[in-house]
Amino acid sequence: MSARKNWQRLGAVAISAGLVLVAAACGSDDESGPSSDAETRVFSADNGEITIPVDPQRVVATGYAVPALIEADASLVGISTWERGLDLMSDEDLATYEGIEKIAGETAVSTNYEAIANVRPDLIVIGVPAPVLSDVDMEQLCAIAPVVAIGPTVPSAWRELTRRQMDAAGRTDTYEASRQAYEEKAAALKDKYAGVLGSLQFGHVGGYGDFTAGNFMREFAGSWGTNIAQDIGVTYYGEVKEKKGGSGDVSEYPSVEEIGSSFAEADVITYTVGVDGQTDSEVQYVLDSELFKNLPAAQAGKVYGLQYTEAATYDSAMLALDAIDASLAPLLEPAPSAAPTAS
User: Fold this and answer.
1) pLDDT value at residue 132
2) Which residues pair with 59 in a beta bridge?
3) Of 207, 249, 246, nearest to 225 (Cα)?
4) pTM for the structure as a whole
5) How many CB atoms lie within 10 A of CB 338?
6) Contact criterion met (CB below 8 Å) for 203 and 297
7) Does the CA dihedral 218-224-227-232 come out positive or negative?
8) What integer pLDDT is reported at residue 338 of this predicted model?
């Protein structure tokens, strides 16, 4: 299982797992921390009320905070790698990413505390799912600089997540500009599809199933594959049988024998494809199943792949909107008229 999929499953238990965090204000009296005369404020983070600089000048970011703070043009001096999101970055942001020192790999356990200390941050933003924080030595980080933990919960919460991360870095102006551009584009697409989406019920096949273990992924409203499409008026029906916290509130893994019954009421089915437009083996297994091919939506040819479903910032979500528009365009085509009957 890839690091990307591993973090996805960890996110499914983010709420139920609970946290043991350092709630006291983090900081350092040595030169690695904020200067004594820097203006500060109290910030509400997942790990408590933390005193941070008003205008951080040397920021370290990990996890989901990496793409958000790169897009915000924050003063980054160290980041974790973010391989899963490189194809979602603009050329400019990718160049920025490549030029910043890497202080951790794809997992929290790979955090290099010496490397973090060496870049002398005045703020550390930890953007990992709650259970992963057990792999982070918060006490050691707090000895270097103020630490704010701002991690993901349900997938659709990336909007609030990025707002908080950018706020911590003093870049709310960038957040508001990106949010406005996204919402204007989503509203235009909602108007464009208003005449065809209202009465349709959608289902979504997610990319994190495991057919070798006998299951597939069904995503409901608010999940990775669905939340951006919802912003243009798509309705994903149903809900999980048992809410497990985090992404487990909006996605589940039924057995492959349930493919037919799971999507029986769907007028349209969408499915996750990679950023390269290719369908991975887990999703292709579902699409090739006879149970799937016999579904009403499949019989009607109303099955569409969606790219950029892992978008977790407004800039990357703009790519997802374009991909959704391209995929759902056939729904705007008039239905073929019936052939005239012979008199």
Assistant:
1) 85
2) 76, 123
3) 207
4) 0.88
5) 6
6) yes
7) negative
8) 52
Alpha carbons 23 and 45: distance in angstroms, whole number = 9
Q: Could you please report the per-residue DSSP string of 6-39?
A: HHHHHHTTHHHH------SPP--SSTTS--TTS-
Q: For residue 299, give Cα distances in angstroms to 138, 199, 302, 332.
A: 54, 18, 8, 18
| Cα 36 from Cα 194, distance rounded (Å) | 56
Helices (H), the chain: 3-11, 14-17, 65-71, 91-99, 113-118, 138-142, 158-168, 172-197, 227-230, 259-262, 281-288, 290-293, 296-299, 314-328
Weakest-pLDDT range from 11-25, 271-285, 289-303, 320-334: 11-25
Residue type present at position 330:
P
Kindly report the three-state secondary structure assignment for every residue of 275-334: CCCCCCHHHHHHHHCHHHHCCHHHHCCCEEEECCCCCCCHHHHHHHHHHHHHHHHHHHCC
From CA 152, how far away is CA 212, in angstroms rounded? 28
Return all residues near 337 (Cβ < 8 A) that are at least 6 apart: none
Coil, strand or helix at 68: helix
Identify whether the C-beta of residue 166 lies closer than 8 Å to the C-beta of residue 179: no
Residues in the chain: 343
Of the CA atoms within 13 Å of residue 216, those in its CB half-sphere come to: 27
Give the whole-angstrom CA distance, residue 52 versus residue 106: 26
Tokens 């030169």 map to which residue?
Answer: 31
**What distance separates the 2 farthest-apart alpha carbons in the chain?**
94
Question: What mean pLDDT is reported for the chain?
Answer: 90
Compute the Cα dihedral for 293, 298, 300, 306 and give only its sign: negative
